[in-house]
Amino acid sequence: PEKVKARLLSKYPPKVARKRAKQIVVNRVDPDGKTPVISSNVRTVPGLMGQRGCCYAGCKGVVLGPTRDIINITHGPIGCGYYSWLTRRNQTDPDCTADGHNFMTYCFSTDMQDQEIIFGGEKKLKQAIQEAYDNFRPKAIAVFSTCPVGLIGDDVHAVCREMKAKLGINVFGFSCEGYKGVSQSAGHHIANNGIFKHVVGLDDTIGEGKYRINLLGEYNIGGDAFEIERLFERCGITMVSSYSGNSSIDAFANSHTADLNLIMCHRSINYVAEMMETKFGVPWVKVNFIGGAATAKSLRKIAQYFDEKELTDRVEAVIAAEMPAVEAACADVRPRTEGKRAMLFVGGSRAHHYQELFAELGMRTLSAGYEFGHRDDYEGRRVLPDIKVDADSRNIEELAITPDPERFNPRISDEKKAELEARGLQFGEYDGMMPEMPDGTMVIDDLSQYETDQLIKIFKPDLFCAGIKEKYTVQKHGIPLKQLHSYDYGGPYAGFKGAVNFYHEIDRMVSSRVWQYMRAPWQEHPELSATYAWE
Ligand code: CFM
Ligand code: HCA
């Protein structure tokens, strides 16, 4: 791997190579669980083609887009709204709320033109909010800023305050201009702050259910949340709110009444979990519903927390009833998937979570990395105190949260917490991706297209996992690509049923020779071939 690293860096100018050298790391795991340091959450070198998205994508597209009954208005040129309009395949079930509101099938935008860039866009934004209200009578309207909004100085927050007073519904804005921060990760933070400031805690009603949890960082891509909700229901666990797959604004408003937060995607939502713990006393634990064994383990964690025989028995009964089908499906495909080699370069959590599913299939992960994960997502939260806060991160507001004078209520006593910890339940912890990756594997942050091509040439993996921008270039190398963002029209892959779907999909992909049979035009007609001068 050290040689491969040197080869990846060899074509870069010295300054670029020095920067990338800190983001391309050969994993070493020592017995104390220490990992090498990886540089991450830093600016992409201009000129390198990367995988990342923008701050607006993280705020509107990722965190708030999946909420069905908030009208999300993109204040900006139409392309931003259009790109973030359900391309992520986040599903929802409007029958879950009484009014049946579902605005996700619409794309709301102020469709900013040159006129607004020159004379300002606040007037058009007010009109758009009014028009959305008149047509749909929603409970809430949210406004999302795109790059030009910050550049021309429109005050979306003032417009939202004015329209909130005028219409009498919740109207709030986000300064999530695309260029803020270094990736969509900044947008997650801004979205977390906004939802916490404007929505969480508005409804104190304690609903029914004995075991009341929130599921944080699960976005119902390809129906994942539906499968997890099915399991909760079977186990007798009540989900107060999900953040934010299949979610509604009323559930967010009430979510601080839950007794436990489960964090699926740590990167995108850890801020809400931390703030809810500080203000209301709700503890959080990390879960992972990707993989059969991981799902069973996560359900057991919930049972361990509530520590009541009734729940533990029921969770065990559900696992006993559902695992055999998962194990049978795995045993069926495993002779064909065993020993196959995968690479995963996705977002800020899936490059980690999906390694469990591949391990169940007997597949090896040669190399993996996040687009925009931070050091804690790679190395574990224990490195949080060592992370240097740079100017780009300092630009993102950090809310000062204190315990609520009336509503702060620690859900479990310190003694009980210590007892559960002694029994292995970790609170407020995430160990990150690297401690679970084998020694000598390559961990690469913010992978570039050039590095993608080189890795494929050097390793010839059996499967490459990434997104739509990488898909076709990888297939042109003769390697199948599985989109771990949108799932390529497939899914769900979470929970027990999801694992079975995934096993079959991966069997199909690594057992098919279709991409190797493809011949590019220049391979059949040598006169079309050309070489780059620098190669
Ligand atoms: Fe979390 Fe996500 Fe991901 Fe993410 Fe994303 Fe996504 Fe992703 Mo695409 S919230 S970090 S910003 S798990 S949209 S559902 S697939 S990059 S790995
Ligand atoms: C985003 C959304 C995205 C993009 C996926 C891809 C998603 O980052 O804005 O590049 O294929 O999951 O839809 O991550």
Q: Could you provide a short overview of the structure?
A:
By secondary structure, the chain is α/β, with parallel strands linked by helices. Among the domains are: about 55-180, Rossmann fold (3-Layer(aba) Sandwich); about 210-335 and about 380-420, Nitrogenase molybdenum iron protein domain (Rossmann fold, 3-Layer(aba) Sandwich), CATH 3.40.50. Helix content is about 45%, strand content about 10%.
General description of the model:
- It is a single chain.
- With 535 residues, the protein is α/β, with parallel strands linked by helices.
- Among the domains are: 55-181, Nitrogenase molybdenum iron protein domain (Rossmann fold, 3-Layer(aba) Sandwich), CATH 3.40.50; 212-333 and 380-422, Nitrogenase molybdenum iron protein domain (Rossmann fold, 3-Layer(aba) Sandwich).
- The chain has 23 helices and 14 strands.
- The strands form 3 sheets. It has a 6-stranded mixed β-sheet, with helices on both faces. A 4-stranded parallel β-sheet has the order 3-2-4-5, sandwiched between helices. A 4-stranded parallel β-sheet has the order 7-6-8-9, with helices on both faces.
- α4 (78-83) links the parallel β2 (70-75) and β3 (108-109).
- The chain is globular, with a radius of gyration of 24 Å.
- The protein binds FE-MO-S cluster and 3-hydroxy-3-carboxy-adipic acid (HCA).
- Residues 58, 62, 88, 184, 217, 219, 221, 265, 267-268, 346-350, 485 line the site of FE-MO-S cluster.
